[in-house]
Amino acid sequence: xxxxxxxxxxxxxxIKFLWSSxxxxxxxxxxxxxxxxxxxLERVGEVADLPHDASPIQIGTExxxxxxxxxxxxxxxxxxxxxxxxxxHAIFNDGTSGWVSDAQLEYxxxxxxxxxxxxxxxxxxSRANKFQWDGLTYEVTTITKARxxxxxxxxxxxxxxxxxxxxxxxRTSTGRFGTIDYSEEKPLLFLGEAVEFPELNLKNLREFEGxx
Amino acid sequence: xxPQAPVxxxxxxxxxxxxxxLTVRAFEHSLNVxxxxxxxxxxxxxxxxxxxxxxxxxxxxxxxxxxGSRGKWKGVVYEAVGYQQRTIHVDGIPYSxxxxxxxxxxxxxxxxxxxxxxxNDVRTLRRLPVHLTSGTKPRSSVDGITYTxxxxxxxxxxxxxxxxxxxxxxGDKVTAMDYIAPPFILSSETTEEEVVWSRGxxxxxxxxxxxxxxxxxxxxxxxxxxxxxxxxxxxxxSIWQLYWMFLLAAFGAMLYFQVTDRNEEVFRQRYRFTAxxxxxxxxxxxxFDLKGxxxxxxxxxxxxxxxxxAYFSFALINEQTGTAYDFGREVSYYxxxxxxxxxxxxSSGDTVxxxxxxxxxxxLRVEPEMAPGSSAMDYExxxxxxxxxxxxxxxxxxxxxxxxxxxxxxxASFEFxxxxxxxxxxxxxxxxxxxxxx
Lengths: 212, 438
What we know:
The complex is a heterodimer.
Chain A: E1 5-7, E2 14-16, E3 24-26, E4 32-37, E5 40-46, E6 62-65, E7 68-80, E8 83-92, E9 97-103, E10 106-113, E11 130-133, E12 136-153, E13 164-171, E14 176-181, E15 188-195
Antiparallel strand pairs in A: 1-2, 3-4, 4-5, 6-7, 7-8, 7-12, 8-9, 9-10, 10-15, 11-12, 12-13, 13-14, 14-15
Chain B: E1 11-14, E2 21-24, E3 32-34, E4 41-43, E5 51-53, E6 70-73, E7 76-90, E8 93-104, E9 108-115, E10 118-124, E11 130-132, E12 139-142, E13 145-164, E14 173-181, E15 184-190, E16 195-203, H1 205-211, H2 231-260, E17 264-274, E18 283-284, E19 288-290, E20 295-303, E21 308-318, E22 324-338, E23 341-347, E24 349-357, E25 360-370, E26 376-385, H3 391-420
Antiparallel strand pairs in B: 1-2, 3-4, 3-13, 4-5, 6-7, 7-8, 7-13, 8-9, 9-10, 10-16, 11-12, 12-13, 13-14, 14-15, 15-16, 17-26, 18-25, 19-25, 20-24, 20-26, 21-22, 21-25, 22-23
């Protein structure tokens, strides 16, 4: 992991990069959202107050998925009627980028995947839709209209100024799961696995008063 | 490294309805919190703890697991943070159970459910069961275990306390389906928005009392619960194993005796008895030797009786000690023809076994007797020593069957009682129990 240092074009605070390929990051001091153009950082906006949340994961948390170590470098925060969740951006030691989601302490690890068959548009997806991918049946179990609540740290793409985003959650009869993300013009597919907290072997977690 | 977010603390606040102090224990995960005083449901995400639902009822429940109790459960410290009572109606009768919500800030949420002293340790399932269509009852399979449908009912939230990471209201209804594979239970809760699957494992109340250091003792279970493991199932298996082991041993013993028994003829003699002759009818035989370990003696009588009977008083007497084995045998044989054809009754011979006779020199004292008016009969006496017998094997086989058959009956009765609580109860009320079905 490189530790490139630049300065915030807004407040001049030092900006450290944990991941050399980051496209976007945030300034910890003035909350500017910064997008990288070669060596320059462009301020594209500012993060509103991040909601208080109780995810035990934080930037700098380390863990492993299928024996591959990762480091958490950033996150996207969403909220909906039934709570909120974090998509933590994880950088694996082979340089690949993945996501550790924490939805009220239910954890999952997923990766951007090329759709094995065309994805339906947001208007055409509904519960109980089924997809046959890689020999597994993925079934749409919930469709969530979430509110984008902010970003923190380093992301592999530009992601800011969103409002409502639709997600379709897919489950299988095994631990495999998927998410169709309708935040962009073209839907994105993330495929991965539901995991239990101990399986991720997380270190450098947040602390909670009264829980040691 | 980046400056870290502040360490979350359990939050204390006052109820906007009644002013009572309350605590939010599950940090920002809690969406709703219930005032312990006035039971108003409050929006935990709202800065002013907006009142979502006031409580109009009078009932006050005392929880078996007080909220705030902590215990090490399945290797992780959990705190009881929420409670809901849910109720189903079967034939118009309400049945309520308890659901305790447990929380750990890293491991998340799990549930302990309770009904009539029966507990389940429940976690939500993040995979979809596969529905099987074969068989009489619907079945569902997950993680290699096949569950059989037990009950479908409308469950209503009838009482809440503490806090929840979802929106909760008294009066919330879900369609609850239970599938069982004791000690596991697979449940689905269906609302308009989603289907949530969970898996429970039957748990003994005592373990919960120990883990959470609860006062008093766990309520004794009454009745048989849907996924309560049958105490007879494992027993039936082990008792059959024992049965086969004993049977094999008995069979082995029988074979051993077949091979090792002396099976030796020690005496054989023909006699003639003439009835109605004056004087003593009894006589003694020459002596013969019985050898080896104490074992049986077979005495056979063969006569030429036809449509007649005879009675023999026997004594097997040890010449050295005078020990006598006295016994009497009746021999009778009748035969003829009638409209149904030929018939016969009885036998002209008889065989008797005298068990456990020690070795020594013996003789028989014999006293025959015949029906009045008879003339004479010829007969033969034969004595065999240490004769192998299969009869004991068959008796053992039958006696050994009792425990496994008894256990199987009890096991079947247990299963019958279990299913009496299901949608498949075999009573006149069958079908009425499904009144709340979708």
